[in-house]
Amino acid sequence: MPTYQYRCEQCSEMFGNVEHLAEHETAHPNCPKCGSEKVQHIPTPFVAKTSRKS
């Protein structure tokens, strides 16, 4: 399961939340520091690792 990064708009806390791909669109995690519901998803870069050599 991927970990999505979020930033709280109230206290600026950055945190990660583990979510299934299917539930990401409907997930609304609260800030673990202040409990605010005003959090924003932060896009993060990723690298896909495969077993094939290029």
Q: How would you describe the overall organization of this protein?
A:
This protein is an all-beta fold. Helices cover 0% and strands 28% of the residues. The protein has no helices and three strands. Strands 2-1-3 form a three-stranded antiparallel beta sheet, with no helix packed on it. Strand 1 (3-8) and strand 2 (14-18) form a beta hairpin. It starts with a strand and ends in a 12-residue tail after the last strand. The mean pLDDT is 88.
Question: What descriptive keywords fit this protein?
Answer:
three-stranded antiparallel β-sheet, elongated, Rubrerythrin, domain 2
Structural topology:
Layout: E1 3-8, E2 14-18, E3 39-42
Antiparallel strand pairs: 1-2, 1-3
Rg, alpha carbons: 14 Å
Instruction: Bin the helical content.
Output: under 10%
Strand content: 25-35%
Order of helices and strands: EEE
Low-confidence stretches: none
In short:
The chain has 54 residues and is mainly β. The chain is 0% helix and 28% strand.
